[in-house]
Amino acid sequence: MDMKNVIWILALSFVMAGCKGKGSQEESGAAFKTLIVSRSNIQLSQDYPASIEGRQSIRIIPRIEGYLQNVHIKEGQHVKRGQTLFTIDQTPYRAEVTAAEANVAVAEANVAEAQLNYDSRQRLHNKDIVSDYDLQSASARLKMAQAGLLQSKAQLETARNNLSYTVLKSPSDGIVGTLPYRVGDYVSSSMQGELTRIADNSEMYVYFSLTERDVMNRMQEQGSFDKVVTAFPPVSLQLSNGEIYPLKGKVESISGIVESNTGALSARAVFTNPDGVLLSGSTGRLIVAEEHEQSIVIPQTATYEILNKIYVYKVVHGLAQSAIIEVAPASDGLINYVVTRGLSEGDVIVAEGAGYVREGMEIDINKQAEQ
C-alpha cells in the first residue's frame, strides 16, 4: 500500500474517533454545577458615596464696623457657647453711649419741665384764669417732651446694642474654622467672607443620594413615602481611610424631590460624634445593611448580564432555558443576589459558569458537584 494512502487512512481514523467522542459527550449532557432554588435568611448591604457636615456651620459676621482690637481664638480650637471670639474697637461706640445717655437726661429734664408747666396750667384753668387753649398747649408740649424722651431712650438702647456688638461671642459649642482676619483689620457687616465659622460637630449630618428606583421600591414595600424613612435600618459609615465608624447612624430625612440632572433624591443620616472623629467637610461611604428573611438567594456566579438585564439558566427537562430575573439592589459583597422576580422555589438553575451555557444545551444534573 502506498505511504500516502496509509497516512490518509490514519488521519481519517483519528477524525472519526474524535467525532465519536464528541457525540458521546453531547449525548450524555454537559457537566455544570446546578442548585435547587430555595428560601433563606440573608443580610445584604448597599453603600453610597457620602459627604459629612457638622450639624451647624455658623458664619461669624460683625453687625457693626470698626477695627479688630482682639482675636481671642485660634484655628481649630474648641469653643463653648457664649465664649468671646473677637473684639472690635469700642472707643467710638462708648462715646455714642455716653452721648445717648446725655440726651436721655436732657429729655427727662424737658419732660419734668413740661409736666410742671402743665400742672400749673391745670390749676389756673380750674380757677378760670387761663383758657382751654393754654391748657391744651401745655398738654401738647408735655406729650412732645415725653415723645422726645422715648426717642432718646431708643437711641440709647441702639448705642448700647452697638457697643455690645463689638464683642462677638460663639453662638454654639463647636470648632473654629479659618481666621482670615487679624488684629488691626477693618471689618464690617458688608465685608466679603466672614471672620470665621463655628462648626458644631457634636452631631454630624451625612448626605447621600438614593436612586429614584430604590425609593420607588421602598415605597412599594412600605406602602407610603412617609414610612420609607422610619423603616430604614441603622446605617454605618465607612471613613475615607477605609475604617468603619464605630457608632451607628439613623436616616432622618429624604428630600422627596427627584433632581433632574441626576435622577436621584437627596437623603440625610445623622451620627453622634462624641470624640470628634468625624470632621466637617470630609467624605465617606454610607452603608445600609438590611435583613431579608425567607428570600430566594442565588450566587452571582449563576447569572450573566445582557443590556443591563440579569439572566439565569433554568434546567427544564434536562435542557438549559434562559430566564430574566430581577434582584434587590443591595448585595453581600458580590457573592449573592436576592431575587425578587423570575424564580420560584424548586426551580433548578445552573449555579456556576452561566456565561458558558447556551440556550437548549443539555445539562446533566447528575454530574453537578453539589445541590
List keywords for this structure.
34% strand; disordered N terminus; alpha+beta; four-stranded antiparallel beta sheet; single chain; twelve-stranded antiparallel beta sheet; 371 residues
Protein model, in words:
The chain is α+β, with helices and mostly antiparallel strands and 371 residues long. Mean pLDDT is 86; it is low at 1-28. Helix 2 packs antiparallel against helix 3 (132-164). Strand 15 (309-316) and strand 16 (319-327) form a beta hairpin. The chain is built from five helices and 18 strands.
Number of helices: 5
Order of helices and strands: HEEEEEHHEEEEHHEEEEEEEEE
**Which spans have pLDDT < 50 for at least 5 consecutive residues?**
1-28
What class do helices, strands and sheet pairing give? alpha+beta
Query: Can you count the beta strands?
Result: 18
Assign a percent range to the helix content: 25-40%
Alpha-carbon distance between the two ends: 56 Å
Shape: elongated
- In round numbers, the mean pLDDT is 86
Biggest beta sheet summary:
12 strands, antiparallel
Beta-strand percent range: 25-35%
**CA radius of gyration:** 41 Å
SSE map:
Blueprint: H1 3-28, E1 34-36, E2 39-60, E3 66-71, E4 78-79, E5 84-88, H2 91-126, H3 132-164, E6 167-169, E7 174-176, E8 186-187, E9 196-211, H4 212-222, H5 226-231, E10 235-239, E11 250-254, E12 264-272, E13 283-299, E14 304-306, E15 309-316, E16 319-327, E17 336-341, E18 348-350
Antiparallel strand pairs: 1-18, 2-9, 2-13, 3-5, 3-8, 4-7, 5-6, 7-9, 9-12, 10-13, 11-12, 13-17, 14-15, 15-16, 16-17
Helix pairs in contact: 2-3
